[in-house]
Design goal:
The protein is built from 8 helices and 17 strands. With 331 residues, the protein is of the alpha/beta class. It starts with 10 loop residues before the first strand and ends with a strand. It is globular, with a radius of gyration of 18 Å. It has one domain: LD-carboxypeptidase A C-terminal domain-like (Glucose Oxidase, domain 1). Helix 7 packs parallel to helix 8.
């Protein structure tokens, strides 16, 4: 079967009695930010929000030892009442958990796992295990600060189709025109590059590749894109979507722009390329982007459109989706 028609294993959609679990998988986190974020998430979703009892632990810069963090995720995942699991924040350290987690066991009880940044390690591992996951807002980093795009979060976790439309005047731009279909995979560029050569290495063939990062110098982005290119990770890619790439501007007017660099390195691939999609490290309105479900990308001079099939399985959901949730961003 064509990869563009395949679904990863999906979790059930949020229901009236669902619980959203909150875990810390990477760096330690401020307790007040977590409390604020959990309150915002509870008010938005109408669900129970339960913080892991070890989420505020500290072990140096980490949120507890790797064994403690892995056990906390596994315990939350095994609970029948938990439908979704959100990360408190990124930072660094989720890669330590990968050899400690039985992803085949997790697949027997799929959950809607949401995170980004350093938690890209988990998103890639879940993708390789054949599960759907979500590149989207985290509790302390986004919900506590009002940076989550509420519409896409609710829609994605409630089993709606997503239809993102961006005009030519918006920050989302068509760099190379074209149309592509396939499941989305990706995350933080610097974390993706470090997955190469590991059992959790990103799989890109037949997929739409999403790449984003923050505060990286352009020569480092150049190096990472070339690393992926030389490793064959752009072979068979259907399309490429770049995130907002905050803090990744040239240091002077004499340097080429990020867009010029992307076109120079990747423009010859013959696939549609889009820049500026606001998921991950953003100033506001962090969009929830489902991974490992069929999607279609339209990159046009008149604007950009990204359509994503339902990423969770509907029963009696809280949000009662109407079928397709259209999110139109004019600027």
């Amino acid at each position: 079967m064509e990869s563009s028609l395949q679904f990863g294993k999906r979790a059930r959609a949020l229901e009236a009695r669902s619980t959203i679990g909150v875990v810390s998988l990477a760096s330690c986190v401020d307790g007040s930010a977590v409390e604020t974020g959990c309150s915002s998430l509870r008010a938005l979703s109408g669900c129970q929000v339960e913080l892991s009892p070890v989420a505020l632990e500290r072990d140096g810069d980490f949120a507890g030892s790797a064994q403690l963090r892995a056990a906390a995720l596994t315990e939350m995942w095994k609970r029948d009442d938990v439908a979704a699991i959100l990360c408190t924040r990124g930072g660094y350290g989720s890669n330590y958990l990968l050899p400690l987690i039985d992803f085949d066991e997790l697949k027997t009880k799929p959950k809607a796992f949401v995170g980004y940044s350093d938690n890209t390690s988990m998103l890639l591992a879940l993708d390789r295990a054949g599960m759907v996951s979500f590149h989207g807002p985290m509790v302390a980093s986004d919900f506590a600060l009002g940076r989550a795009d509420e519409r896409s979060f609710l829609a994605a976790l409630s089993g709606s189709r997503l239809d993102f439309t961006f005009s030519a005047e918006s920050r989302v731009q068509s760099l190379v025109a074209g149309e592509a279909s396939g499941p989305i995979v990706g995350g933080c560029l610097s974390v993706i590059v470090t997955s190469l050569g590991t059992p959790w290495e990103i799989e890109t063939f037949g997929k739409i590749l999403f790449l984003e990062d923050v505060n990286e110098k352009l020569f480092r982005i150049d190096r990472m894109l070339m690393h992926l290119l030389l490793a064959g990770k752009f072979e068979g890619v259907r399309g490429i979507v770049f995130g907002a790439m905050l803090g990744c501007a040239p240091a002077s007017e004499a340097e080429e722009s990020l867009e010029q660099m992307i076109r120079r390195i990747l423009g010859g691939l013959g696939v549609p390329i889009v820049t500026g999609f606001p998921s991950g490290h953003v100033v506001s309105e962090n969009i929830t982007l489902p991974f490992n479900v069929p999607a279609t990308l339209h990159s046009m001079e008149s604007g950009v459109r990204l359509q994503v099939q339902p990423a969770t399985l509907i029963s009696n959901t809280v949000f009662k989706p109407k079928g397709i949730v259209c999110i139109d961003e004019g600027s």
